[in-house]
Design a protein that fits this description.
Number of strands: 27
Radius of gyration: 30 Å
Shape: elongated
Strand content: 15-25%
Distance between the termini: 38 Å
Length: 648
């Protein structure tokens, strides 16, 4: 009786026959093949030489016999990494690539390939035909299972705080499958219309196409899909799943109805919990609603996506300030997530800063968003600050009738923290920018503001949170103004939060920013109240993390970090040469220029809160999606997952 094991490398006709002969002799055989199925070159042939017999007719019985033989263990997608030992006693280490399909469950039906939006040349047919990223090597292949071709994670997804499947919805847009694209976006993002308008789109900064000419307009494509979805509710309803979850009969309190709080609530209700969101404002949305002006983010767009979350089963209580958050845990709630944001403005400690017409930007923007803007018509308005909030305040002042609007900040024009395009938009509207200034005094007569006394500086940045600069002698001036709006930072309102919660510099401390746990069991915190002012997408990420951790806490498990992507996947970074070669070799990739969003003329926007930027047309969106270099091959769009009835 033979007891040894034999490794056969290569599963062509020779490897299969050798394996069968050895297996019939009683050996345990490991048949190693680097492709996704056995058969080798012979499977690619139509006829054999010199007999002119049908190649597959000869090989099919061998395929079936090899696949069924109890002594043959087939290792596909595998290559030898190392061999150690001596004749008769070898140890072999294999490197095995992921199939991404459970071959034991797969029925070979092909539904995944039908759903897959990624088209590739079929190398099995020497590139003469096409296949999808979800593929079976050839019809008679053993194992009779599909596989996914995937190089790694696309850099656009890797750069996104919420692991948004950008390449996935872009691939679906390219095929005109807009409803499917919307479903893919909603996997990680409950606010696609909002992020399609005001995200800082780190995905675009990471886009490999930027190395060739310009990154894809990923934010614009997201907006296109979200706007299309709003206009086609029946088609969206047809693809969105009815999620049935078992109720866990556990209640979670969430304080703050901004992007972090609402995201956590949406996740928790889909896990079976009963979340209640308490919001002090008369409207939900946090800074999305009362901080971002309507010309950038229309209020009806925000409300539409909030309504979807509430409709899922979230209990939203507006005009409901919580004065004792810890008491919620003694009032029937099993966990608490604090996501109060950073709505408090900061005033500079300047002489004259307490004059009535010295405002803070957060209050000014909130009042304007709620239809009660301070009176600025016919007045000179100076905004102090160089970030996006400062730009918002300045452009809002223009739209509410200010005679003149200026912005002034410590940073140079080149280093202002606001996005360049926002500063340019502001300057188009006549807003003057006074960079590289430090401020000495808000000047006034009686209780009336007359201007701001400032000095030009050589600003080097911040060191330990403090500005580092030298004043330039002989540059002092007074910038005349009737109203001064301070936009130099924001802070959370910690009233009502437990004294026992650890805090630092006016923000909550969490034991781990991946789990959002505080030092008090059952209380979690996230968003701007922990990180300081960031972007909406960062707050969404915090909400996902908090919901994941709360679920584990209420299930009696240790908290772990949340990721929708596989953090072990390599990021597919293309060099300039690789990107150019991919563009040149693939005729399906468009060489065209980046599509930009249309912008209202200055004359049409200065006196109106009408949305400033328009969206892409269907033709423009498809053309822009075709610029994608398909870096990771499999786009992670999840269409194969949705289509697979075998759960493989």
């Amino acid at each position: 009786m033979t007891t040894g094991a034999v490794l056969v490398v290569g599963a062509g006709i020779g490897g299969m026959q050798a394996s069968l002969d050895l297996a019939d002799s009683g050996f345990k055989v490991y048949l190693v093949e680097k492709s996704s199925g056995i058969g080798g070159i012979m499977a690619q042939l139509d006829k054999t030489f010199p007999t002119n017999d049908c190649s597959m007719c000869i090989m099919s019985p061998k395929l079936v016999e090899t696949g069924r033989h109890l002594n043959v263990d087939i290792k596909t997608l595998s290559e030898i990494e190392s061999i150690r030992g001596e004749p008769g006693n070898f140890t072999v280490t294999l490197e095995r690539k992921a199939r991404y399909v459970d071959a034991a469950k797969c029925t070979g039906c092909g539904d995944c390939a039908t759903a897959c939006p990624i088209i590739l040349p079929d190398l099995f047919d020497q590139g003469l035909s096409e296949r999808r990223a979800a593929y079976k090597l050839y019809p008679q292949v053993i194992p009779n299972a599909f596989a996914l071709e995937k190089l790694g994670t696309a850099p656009c997804r890797d750069a996104c705080p919420i692991d948004q499947r950008a390449q996935g919805y872009i691939a679906l847009i390219r095929e005109g499958r807009f409803a499917d694209a919307y479903r893919t976006i909603k996997e990680e993002n409950p606010f696609p219309s909002i992020c399609g308008r005001v995200c800082n789109h780190r995905c675009e900064d990471a886009c490999n196409r930027e190395k060739v000419d310009a990154p894809l307009n990923i934010m614009g494509l997201k907006r296109f899909v979200a706007d299309w979805a709003a206009a086609h509710p029946d088609e969206i309803a047809a693809v969105m799943p009815d999620i049935e979850v078992e109720s866990k009969d556990r209640r979670v309190a969430i304080v703050g109805a901004g992007p972090a709080g609402l995201t956590a609530a949406f996740d928790l209700v889909r896990m079976g919990y009963q979340p209640t969101v308490f919001e002090a404002q008369p409207v939900a949305g946090g800074m999305m609603r009362v901080g971002v002006p309507g010309y950038r983010l229309p209020h009806d767009v925000v409300q539409r996506e909030i309504d979807e979350i509430v409709a899922a089963g979230v209990d939203l209580k507006l005009d409901h300030r919580v004065d004792d958050m810890a008491a919620l845990l003694n009032d029937g709630f099993d966990a608490l997530f604090v996501a109060v944001g950073a709505h408090g403005g900061i005033k500079l400690p300047l002489p004259g800063a307490d004059l009535p017409d010295v405002l803070v930007a957060t209050d000014y923007l909130r009042d304007a968003a709620l239809g009660q803007p301070p009176e600025v018509a016919g007045k000179r308005v100076l905004v102090i600050g160089g970030g996006n909030v400062a730009v918002d305040a300045a452009q809002t002042a223009v739209r509410t009738g200010a005679e003149w609007v200026g912005m002034s900040c410590l940073e140079s024009r080149e280093t202002m923290p606001a996005h360049d395009w926002e500063i340019e938009d502001a300057q188009e509207e006549g807003i003057e920018v006074f960079p590289s200034r430090t401020f000495k005094q808000v000047t006034g007569q009686g209780d009336k503001v007359t201007g701001v006394r400032c000095v030009e500086v050589d600003f080097r940045g911040f060191a330990d949170g403090r500005p580092d600069f030298d004043e330039l002698s002989g540059t002092e001036q007074v910038i005349e103004a009737d109203i001064v709006i301070l936009a130099i930072g924001q802070r959370p309102d910690l009233d009502g939060t437990p004294d026992e919660l650890e805090k630092f510099r006016g923000r909550f401390l969490v034991s781990d920013e991946e789990t959002m746990e505080t030092n008090i069991p059952g209380i979690f915190a996230g968003g701007d109240v922990v990180t300081g002012t960031t972007f909406i997408v960062d707050a969404i990420a915090a909400g996902h993390k908090a919901a994941h951790s709360i679920d584990r806490y209420l299930s009696g498990e240790a908290a772990t970090g949340w990721h929708s992507a596989n953090p072990g996947q390599p990021v597919v970074e293309l060099s300039l040469q690789e990107a150019r070669a991919k563009l040149a070799a693939d005729p399906s990739i468009s060489p065209g220029p980046r599509a930009e969003l249309p912008k209202l003329p200055v004359v049409d926007r200065k006196g109106s809160f009408v949305e400033m930027y328009g969206g892409l047309s269907e033709t423009e969106a498809i053309a822009e999606a075709k610029r994608c270099l398909v870096c990771g091959v499999c786009s992670e769009c999840n269409q194969c997952f949705y289509a697979c009835k075998a759960d493989a």
